[in-house]
Every structure is written in structure tokens, then in C-alpha cells.
């Protein structure tokens, strides 16, 4: 998934903001892997501008580990007792500009798809900016259209909710754990208070106020209690402005009319470093998430730090 050197240099340096097309898939891309007590954390990067990873490449990593967990669960009982269960895996990455659709959502018309795929100008933390052609992907999560892109941290845990390695999850308690981990990170790392809204998955700022704002989107799929997809935290991507730079202006996020989208940068101000490190922030989320895997009391969040 490596652009040619000429294209990569142009994307970063050309005053004309050369257009970066979706990268071709590649069997290899840079990544860092860290094993915590029980959770394996793999942060994906690439040789693309800003280290962005294609949605398809991240999904490939996810499905490979999901297949391992499903294969273990399919073993006969006697063999499964003698075969160690694969560890849960957390995949994290910054995504190349991608609009995703929910599994029950109607297919887009050609005009709607073309509208989303218009060139998008993105400011890169590594310096300069680039214009991308976003892609559109149909997913197996619930919900409606959302966006993944630079300035957003995507975290996809791939775990067996009924693993013998830790206390079982239900569907609701697992979603709540993703939300609680994000709330805890926002509070401890950035001093941002956030909450959840009944029947509206994700994490919100000022949820009970006059202008509720979504700071993290949640979308999960389960197959035989093995999870895929997860949560996307808006860190410093644009949430205001026109469609040339603000992807949210091109659609109604998750179909929620009258609700706004926000980011850590918009809420925390100078508590977010301009050159924030995606791998480091993902590592903090991973540490908090693992605490909840091992301690059921930390699968929810009431605003009190424990």
C-alpha cells in the first residue's frame, strides 16, 4: 500500500495539493505490537502521508484474528480444553478518508456516493496538507453513515465475549465497556467530561445540554460472540466548516438530525498537543480497556476515577 515516492512527495510538498487516491492493498505494512497482561495491542501505520492506513487493510488484520478465535471456538470440547485460547487483540490506527455505511442501510445512489467521494483537503500533523479521494465501504455494523479519517483514533478490539480467560460479556455490557474506556480516557487524559445517551451509541459531550455533541462513534458486529469493529474517537479532525475540509458537512452523522459532532481539540483546547501521537494515545486506551477486561467494575463509568 505504498505510494510511489514521487506521489508521496507531491502530496506533502506541492503547493497545488496533489490528489492522493486510495492506496492499493499490500500484504505488508508497518505496525507495532505490545502485549499487556492479557491483551495484545497492535497499532497499524503505513508509508502513506501521515502514516494513514486503508480501511481494507485494517479490516484484513481484524478478520485474520477473528478467524483464529472462531476456529478455536469450533474445536471439539476435549480438544478445546487442551488448546490455549487465543489472546484478545486490539487493533488501532488512523484511517485514510473513508465513509462507512451500516449493514441495514440502503445502498447509496450514484449521486450520493459521488458527493461523499469528492476531493477532501486534509491538514497532516507531519506538516503540510493533502487532498484525498475518500472511499465508501459497506460494513456489517448497525447504524447509518459515519466517517473515519486523519485526526481520528480508531480502536477495534477483537475478543471472544465468552472467553474462559475473563468474566463474560453481554452485548450491552461490551458496548458499555468501549464507551466507558473512552469516557475514562477523556477524563483522565484531557479533562473532558463525557457521557452516554440511551439508544444512541457512542460517547457524547454535553449530552443533557442544549447542544449535545458526539465525540466518539460506536459500531460493533458479533459473530458467535467474537467481536469486530469498535469505536472511533475524534481527536483533532475538522468538525466545522465547508465540505472541502469538513467531512461531516457532507452527510448527517449516524442519521442524527439536530446533533453536532465534536473533537478532543474542540473541547480540551491546549490540553491536546498539536503533534499528538496516535500510537501513544492508543496505548493509553488499550491499558484502560484491559483493566475492564480483568475487572468487571471498570466496564462501566460513573465519572468517579477508580
Describe this structure in words.
It comes from Purpureocillium lavendulum. Residues 84-293 form the BPL/LPL catalytic domain. GO terms for molecular function: lipoyl(octanoyl) transferase activity. There is one protein chain. By secondary structure, the protein is α/β, with parallel strands linked by helices. It is 27% helix and 24% strand. The chain contains 7 helices and 15 strands. The chain has helices spanning 5-13, 55-73, 77-81, 110-116, 171-190, 264-268, 278-294; strands at 19-20, 31-35, 40-44, 89-93, 98-101, 120-123, 129-132, 135-138, 146-148, 152-158, 195-197, 200-205, 213-223, 226-234, 260-261. Strands 2, 3, 4, 10, 11, 12, 13, 14 and 15 form a 9-stranded mixed beta sheet that branches. It has a 3-stranded mixed beta sheet with strand order 1-7-6. It has a 3-stranded mixed beta sheet with strand order 8-5-9, with no helix packed on it. Helix 5 packs across helix 7. The longest helix is centred in the middle third of the chain and has 20 residues, at 171-190. The protein starts with a helix and ends in a 12-residue tail after the last helix. The relative contact order is 0.16. Residues 1-18 and 23-29 have low confidence and may be disordered.
Amino acid at each position: 500500500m505504498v505510494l510511489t515516492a514521487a506521489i508521496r512527495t507531491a502530496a506533502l510538498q506541492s503547493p497545488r495539493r496533489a490528489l492522493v487516491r486510495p492506496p492499493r492493498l499490500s500484504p505488508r505494512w508497518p505496525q507495532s505490537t505490545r502485549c499487556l497482561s492479557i491483551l495484545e495491542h497492535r497499532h497499524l501505520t503505513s508509508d502513506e502521508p501521515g502514516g494513514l492506513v486503508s480501511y481494507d487493510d485494517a479490516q484484513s488484520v481484524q478478520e485474520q484474528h477473528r478467524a483464529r478465535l472462531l476456529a478455536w471456538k469450533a474445536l471439539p470440547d476435549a480438544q478445546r480444553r487442551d488448546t490455549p485460547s487465543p489472546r484478545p487483540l486490539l487493533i488501532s490506527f488512523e484511517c485514510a478518508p473513508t465513509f462507512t455505511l451500516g449493514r441495514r442501510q440502503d445502498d447509496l445512489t450514484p449521486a450520493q456516493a459521488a458527493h461523499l467521494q469528492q476531493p477532501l483537503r486534509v491538514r497532516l500533523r507531519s506538516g503540510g496538507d493533502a487532498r484525498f479521494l475518500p472511499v465508501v465501504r459497506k460494513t456489517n455494523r448497525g447504524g447509518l453513515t459515519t466517517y473515519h479519517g486523519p485526526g481520528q483514533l480508531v480502536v477495534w478490539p477483537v475478543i471472544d465475549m465468552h472467553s474462559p480467560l475473563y468474566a463474560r460479556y453481554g452485548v450491552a455490557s461490551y458496548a458499555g465497556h468501549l464507551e466507558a474506556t473512552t469516557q475514562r480516557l477523556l477524563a483522565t487524559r484531557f479533562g473532558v467530561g463525557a457521557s452516554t445517551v440511551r439508544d444512541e451509541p457512542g460517547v457524547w459531550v454535553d449530552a443533557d445540554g442544549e447542544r449535545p455533541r458526539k465525540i466518539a462513534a460506536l459500531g460493533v458486529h458479533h459473530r458467535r460472540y467474537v467481536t469486530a469493529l469498535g469505536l472511533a474517537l475524534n481527536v483533532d479532525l475538522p468538525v466545522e466548516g465547508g465540505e472541502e475540509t469538513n467531512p461531516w458537512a457532507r452527510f448527517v452523522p449516524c442519521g442524527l438530525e439536530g446533533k453536532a459532532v465534536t473533537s478532543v481539540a474542540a473541547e480540551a483546547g491546549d490540553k491536546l498537543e498539536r503533534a499528538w501521537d496516535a500510537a501513544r494515545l492508543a496505548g493509553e486506551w488499550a491499558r484502560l480497556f484491559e483493566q475492564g477486561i480483568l475487572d468487571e467494575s471498570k466496564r462501566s463509568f460513573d465519572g468517579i476515577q477508580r
